[in-house]
Design goal:
Blueprint (H helix, E strand, L loop, with lengths): L2 E7 L15 H6 L19 E5 L7 H8 L9 E5 L2 H5 L5 H23 L7 E5 L22 H18 L3 E3 L1 H5 L23 E2 L3 E2 L1 H18 L4
Parallel strand pairs: 1-2, 1-3, 3-4, 4-5
Antiparallel strand pairs: 6-7
């Protein structure tokens, strides 16, 4: 049977903000766009025999993964990438107490997501949990982004990521630390709020404040790929 790669989660994974079909992180991990990233030719899961089931959608929360994405799995995947938590946290933007409660809820739901993937006979899928990035680059402010500064924001993103890392460790999943990889490529590099999916400045990895542009999608894919390589999960 053909290997199955399944993507769960939110807009960190999707094509839309990266410029259209085939350009998002999930798509690139499955099938590289050789014209855009020639150095990555052949470094994709499709080349290694994987089909793709992409269940991600814009605005997805942990509730959406549980209620809408997981029920669509018609067979156990061999490999899973997960991008969750960012939209849950954004729903409490500016309210520190509410955000702390959201982090606890994300942790509880993420536990259920990982347990669901592991349930049943046979081996659990090889799973990569992705940390949530910070377009403010640790400052709590995105000039021109349309959101008021939130000084507690960077600390809360770290707390969310710590919860995700702990869950991954307990479930035998691997962590793709996109948060660490993206630092310096948001507000410090330019304007994350600009809508251009392919800006001339390739050091800017965001658009629409919280979305990965084409270069950001590639860098998420890069982080996933290196995580899979370190884990010995690439056939």
């Amino acid at each position: 049977m053909t290997l199955l790669y399944t993507a769960l989660g939110d807009s960190m994974s999707i094509d839309v903000y990266a410029g259209g079909p085939g350009r998002g992180a999930t798509s690139l991990l499955h099938r590289n766009r050789d014209a855009d990233f020639p150095d990555w030719a052949g470094r994709d899961l499709g080349t290694r025999g994987y089909d793709l089931l992409d269940l991600t959608y814009d605005g997805a929360t942990t509730s959406g993964v549980l209620g809408q994405q997981l029920p669509r799995l018609d067979r156990r995947p061999d490999l899973v990438t997960i991008t969750i938590g960012g939209n849950d946290l954004m729903g409490a933007y500016g309210d520190t107490a509410a955000a702390e409660a959201v982090i606890a809820l994300v942790a509880e739901r993420a536990e259920r997501i990982l347990a669901h993937l592991a349930a049943g006979p046979g081996d659990a899928p090889r799973t990569v949990v992705t940390t949530v990035y910070d377009p403010s680059d640790g400052t709590g402010a995105v000039p021109g982004g349309g959101l008021p500064p939130w000084p507690d924001g960077p600390r809360l993103v770290v707390a969310l990521n710590d919860a995700l890392k702990g869950l991954a460790g307990r479930h035998g999943a691997r962590v793709a630390d996109v948060h660490a990889h993206f630092l310096g490529h948001g507000a410090q590099a330019g304007d994350p709020g600009r809508p251009d999916p392919r800006p001339a400045n390739r050091d800017l990895w965001y658009c629409g404040v919280i979305e990965p542009n084409a270069w950001g999608a590639h860098e998420i894919r890069r982080t996933w790929w290196h995580t899979l390589h370190r884990a010995g999960w690439l056939p």
